[in-house]
Amino acid sequence: MVAGGSGSRFGGKKQFAVLKGREVLEWSLAVAGRTCDGVVLVLPPEMVAQSARRAERVVAGGGTRCASVRAGLAAVPDDAGVVVVHDAARPLASERIWRAVIEAVRLGADAGVPCVPLADTVKQRQDDGGLVTLDRARLLASQTPQAFAAAVLRAAHAGDKEATDDAALVEAIGGRVTEVAGDPSNLKLTTRLDLLLAEALLADGPMAGSLVPACTRLVEGPNALAGDDR
After folding, report:
1. Distances (CA, A) of 225 to 51, 61, 118, 219
2. pLDDT in tens, 29-88
3. pLDDT tens sequence across 135-173
4. Core-most of 25, 128, 135, 206, by most CB within 10 Å?
5. How far apart are CA 101 and CA 150, in angstroms?
6. Residue 134 lies in a domain
7. Nearest CA-CA partner of 145 in 6, 49, 39, 62
8. Going by DSSP bridges, is the β-strand pair 177-181/111-117 parallel, antiparallel, or unpaired?
9. What CATH number did the domain enclosing 170 receive?
């Protein structure tokens, strides 16, 4: 569980912000505890000592997301066969998604990654400042949790490489990454607006479901892609 970011765009450590009476971090820890055999929590160094009881292992993160993942991976038991990496900034990831990505690896994939289709037309900026439209039908927004064959993930992180998510590192060494159905409501908290959207999605009543499409349009931009939890 990667929760070592400073939350610069959020205006504070978003993993400790309150969401429906619980810290953002606690929502993810609860699902991880129901779906995994153990949890390694990666926190800012100054928060480790006071958070020792939050998970089986609590370790200090590094200067980048990948460095934090490597710190957590070093604390995972050597005999673990499947490792799930999740950004704590996605507190609404469902148990269904967690189990689906794990199952994808158990069925033979090197990685299982939840993805959702893009709602907007995507443009690519060229070196000369011009724009080129990409084929939206072939593009997906990736989310976390992402599950991996443990040996493959360790190999992908060898050499202190950097990427926006762990699946990209696995792709780079030729690993087989499998798509799993994600969920538009599995939003990433990047700004205070995202916290308000998460509150709305967790609200009881008929409005909660109707908010999903609107929230998707608002948050499925660059800030919603799985990557740096900062």
Report:
1. 28, 21, 11, 9
2. 999 999 999 999 999 999 999 998 999 999 999 999 999 999 999 999 999 999 999 999
3. 999 999 999 999 999 999 999 999 889 999 999 999 999
4. 25
5. 13
6. yes
7. 39
8. parallel
9. 3.90.550.10
pTM: 0.85
**Residue-range definition of the domain harbouring residue 43:** 14-224
Three-class secondary structure of residue 208 per DSSP: helix
Which two three-digit tokens encode residue 96?
A: 């269904």
Measured over the CA atoms of residue 31, residue 229, residue 59 and residue 176, the dihedral's sign is positive
Q: Is residue 8 part of a domain?
A: no
The answer to the question of residue 229 being in a domain is no
How many structural domains is the chain composed of? 1
DSSP-derived secondary structure letter, 149 = E
Place of tokens 């970011």: 5
Under 8 Å CB-to-CB from 193, ≥6 apart: which residues? 218
Is residue 83 one of the residues assigned to a domain? yes
